[in-house]
Design goal:
- With 145 residues, this protein is of the alpha/beta class.
- Helix content is 46%, strand content 15%.
- The chain contains 6 helices and 4 strands, in the order H-H-E-H-E-E-H-H-H-E.
- The longest helix is centred in the C-terminal third of the chain and has 19 residues.
- The relative contact order is 0.24.
- The model has no long low-confidence stretch (mean pLDDT 95).
- Bound molecules: calcium ion (CA) (2 copies).
- One calcium ion (CA) binds next to loops.
Amino acid sequence: MSLVEDFLTSEEELEIVQAIREAERNTSGEIRVHIEKTTNLSHYNRALEVFRMLKMFNTKEQNAVLLYIAVEDHAFVIYGDKGINKVVPANFWDTTKDVIQQQFKQGNFKQGIISGVLKAGEELQVHFPWQVDDEDELSNEISKG
Ligand code: CA
Ligand code: CA
């Protein structure tokens, strides 16, 4: 049994993938979720490493965002690409972080991820609305470390 399966059933995983699809219906931004046990890097640096590993820089508008979660460390990072950082204030992800934290604190792992994904989508939508020629540039599958 892999680590992620300890925390998420395959049904729950599917629900998260659905949430990503739903979020991406309203924004051209791309959202990915990466879950792993722990890291010996700082969580921020590891999120950046995963972002690169998943080639998340490869979006037209540079508007991909990664929700990185280190389960054992009880830590997560929201890492957005530079296309996003260029047009938003520094505290842009705070509301999304709060939403996730609230659920995680209550032990609602799956719901925290889903709420975070949907919230991130809403935030992205303001600056990067969905467009007719939208492509699903990055996979919606959960990535596991
Ligand atoms: Ca897209
Ligand atoms: Ca996608």
